[in-house]
Design a protein that fits this description.
Blueprint: H1 3-20, H2 42-61, H3 80-90, H4 100-116, H5 119-130, E1 136-139, E2 155-159, E3 163-170, E4 181-187, E5 198-204, E6 210-215, E7 224-234, E8 239-240, H6 246-255, H7 272-281, H8 288-316, H9 323-347, H10 364-373, H11 380-390
Parallel strand pairs: 1-4
Antiparallel strand pairs: 2-3, 3-7, 4-5, 5-8, 6-7
Helix pairs in contact: 1-3, 3-8, 4-5, 4-6, 7-8, 7-9, 8-9, 9-10, 9-11
Length: 413
Amino acid sequence: MSEPEMQAWRSGVRDWLHSMLPQRPERPEGPADYAVFQNITDEAERSLLERVRAYRRQRYDAGYGAIALPEELGGAGLSMQYVVAFTEEEQAFDPPQSTELISVTCGLVGPTIATFGTAEQRAKYARAFLRSDLLCCQLFSEPGAGSDLAAVATSAVFAEGDGWLLEGQKVWSSGARFADYGLLLARTDREVAKQAGLTMFLIPMDAPGVEIRPIRQMSGASSFNEVFLSGVRVGDDMRVGPVGEGWKVANATLGFERTASGQGTRRKGGSFEDLLRLARTLGKSGDPVVRQELADVYVRTQLRAATTERVARAAAAGVAPGPAASIGKLVASANLMRIAEVASALLGARIAADSGEPDGFAWTEHVLGAPGYRLAGGTDEIQRNIIGERVLGLPREPRVDKGMPYSKLPRSG
């Protein structure tokens, strides 16, 4: 790819974005929103999803919906450099605020079905997910299998003529109650090592036996859900990939996160600019201690941006981000916590009750949501393990369960 070719492509992207979207305002209109995890009513989320899906469909039809996916799988067949370029151009515009469900559907599930699905599955679901005609949540984590995803206990038992019988519980499923389908990782063999006994399925979220319960977070939001499966039956035509290769499919799904840049992200929490504006509004921006705290947040913000840029550029060059992605996640969660600390100190008692003042009580959603980001997408402890083992070369943690059949694994309770 030559520089003139990229510039010409960028010019086409800008022209298309100009025809579709307004320019991004310096500051979002309406009440301040500092929520780390989206906190809106179900009715408002349905309305938002419709607006986002309308944009996503137009974007896909214009050739910008699955930029890095091969043409034979329904994408544009371009390199990651084009994904990065599109994301950079889109930042100057104001698309509808997206949701985690859109990110999962278009950025993770769509490519997974396009890659691992049968011809029939690709024809029926891949384009529909990539275009957001259908929505799909992720049913991976469980109460006893979060950081250790391979330990999932949800079972899938096959009976000739009856298909698969699913029993179990999933948790932390973003957008599950608005999804048409769920991409579910289940255990199909208990007598082999835990990674070897898993299989992936696509299940209708309105199937008999599927129960969805919202999880109320301490910030007030209910963006996550528990999903219970009791006697749920699906045909073998809903199996994604071979039996026993669910771990391979799951890892590929998670790997698509690095190619999903710009596929439906949203701002998480307050930023340095929001914090600086708050300090100025309160007349504290000249205080030496406050200025030192603001400088600390600014430096952390720049470090996060630099790490994100490094991961994006590595992906554009065809290099897996590796531990750099873990460093970025760790920096991001630490920065959110630091912003929460500084905002709380600046506001004092103002943050405890809604007095009607702008930029006051709204910060509670950041303060209460920031700790959760240390768990979402891989805990801080897991990220530190990855950095320690793969960057610093420290000895790996002992794995007493390595190669042990799942049925022999010790369990608590």
